[in-house]
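From the methods appendix. Each design record in this collection lists the tokenized structure first, followed by the designed amino acid sequence. Records were kept in a plain field format so they could be parsed without special tools. The example shown here is representative of the layout used throughout.

RECORD:
FOLD TOKENS (104 positions):
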């Protein structure tokens, strides 16, 4: 599981680099054409949202890896019950059991 999470984190980190590069490019002045400006702004918003989601995914993976380091990999951080192999198989970065995750 840990190796898979680390690999996934690396993939997200690479994706984030590309998104941040796109964000830097989007800091250039907008086109003179209004329709083109609207499209550029919309694209910038999409890139910003993707970068935010990618950063969130990296934080979740880092949190799960720290819990693994502390020996709490399969312990729900809310109720203390086992998270379970089935849930970890589908969502390796899970830190809550299914019941606690559903209560959100």
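DESIGN:
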């Amino acid at each position: 599981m840990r190796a898979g999470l680390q690999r996934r984190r690396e993939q997200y980190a690479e994706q984030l680099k590309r998104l941040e590069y796109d964000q830097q490019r989007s800091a250039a002045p907008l086109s003179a054409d209004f329709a083109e400006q609207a499209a550029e702004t919309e694209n910038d918003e999409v890139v910003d949202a993707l970068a935010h989601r990618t950063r969130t995914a990296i934080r979740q993976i880092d949190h799960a890896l720290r819990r693994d380091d502390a020996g709490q990999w399969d312990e729900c951080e809310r109720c203390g019950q086992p998270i379970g192999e089935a849930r970890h198989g589908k969502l390796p970065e899970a830190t809550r059991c299914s019941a606690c995750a559903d209560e959100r």
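APPENDIX NOTE: Helices lie at 2-25, 34-69, 85-90, 98-102.
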